[in-house]
């Protein structure tokens, strides 16, 4: 199975900050990586697919990069609505696997 | 508008069974693979099982193989997950999710709101 490791597990930041979350795959997944945002009590919401493609309707302050085994999600200027938990997911092969999540908290 | 609505969760004793359902609307269910993803209380996301659009091919996580069965009834626009031999560690919110492509290998572009399964005596 492909293991996905996110860092950090928790991130404290302020409105307006630029933040980056990292996701590492245990083997190459090319660009078959998605990022999701999840708020408490809600289903995950797709932000980024194919490592760097922005899903329709997602604000442009979100961006993704990377390929192979190293990936990152960047939020250029945090907004109050962005405080949530973020997950990466590889969809190169079954079993699909998720990172453990990064909780973005208000500082 | 794509909508996925899960149902069938509840409280069940260890060793018991449930049948989860996901009603789909706003798209041609038969054209897309579908998955179940679960989330234990306070934990991360775990992919559980997937089924191709025609229903002929399925994949499941090792943690549920032999106990959970994914199926679909495209004529009724419904996805199912039969969960048997339930254990305490199966306690989770179960989400159905739509694949972005008309074959395996896509990301999940739509998710349902989830249905809670609680396994406890």
Summarize the structure.
The complex is a heterodimer of chains A (107) and B (121). With 107 residues, chain A is mostly beta strands.
What sort of overall outline of chain B do the alpha carbons produce when their principal axes are compared?
globular
Structural class of chain B: mainly beta
Beta content of chain B comes to: over 45%
Question: How far is the first residue's CA from the last residue's CA of chain B?
Answer: 40 Å
Number of helices of chain B: 0
Mean pLDDT of chain A: 97
| Termini separation of chain A | 36 Å
The rounded Rg of chain A comes to: 13 Å
Biggest sheet features of chain B? 7 strands, mixed
Total number of beta strands of chain A: 11
Summarize the main sheet of chain A: 7 strands, mixed
The total strand number of chain B stands at 11
The arrangement of helices and strands of chain A along the chain is EEEEEEEEEEE
Explain what this protein looks like in three dimensions.
The complex is a heterodimer of chains A (107) and B (121). By secondary structure, chain A is mainly β. Chain A is built from no helices and eleven strands. Chain A has strands at 4-7, 10-13, 19-25, 33-38, 45-49, 53-54, 62-67, 70-75, 85-90, 97-98, 102-106. In chain A, strands 2, 4, 5, 6, 9, 10 and 11 form a seven-stranded mixed β-sheet that branches. In chain A, strand 9 (85-90) and strand 10 (97-98) form a beta hairpin. The model of chain A has no long low-confidence stretch (mean pLDDT 97). Chain B has 121 residues and is mainly β. Chain B contains no helices and eleven strands. In chain B, the strands form two sheets. In chain B, strands 2, 4, 5, 6, 9, 10 and 11 form a seven-stranded mixed β-sheet that branches. In chain B, strands 1-3-8-7 form a four-stranded antiparallel β-sheet, with no helix packed on it. Chain B is globular, with a radius of gyration of 13 Å. Chain B starts with a strand and ends with a strand. The model of chain B has no long low-confidence stretch (mean pLDDT 96). The chains are: A mainly beta (107), B mainly beta (121). The A-B interface holds A 32, 34, 36, 38, 42-46, 49-50, 55, 87, 89, 91-92, 94-101 and B 35, 44-47, 50, 59, 61-62, 95, 100, 104-109, 111-114.
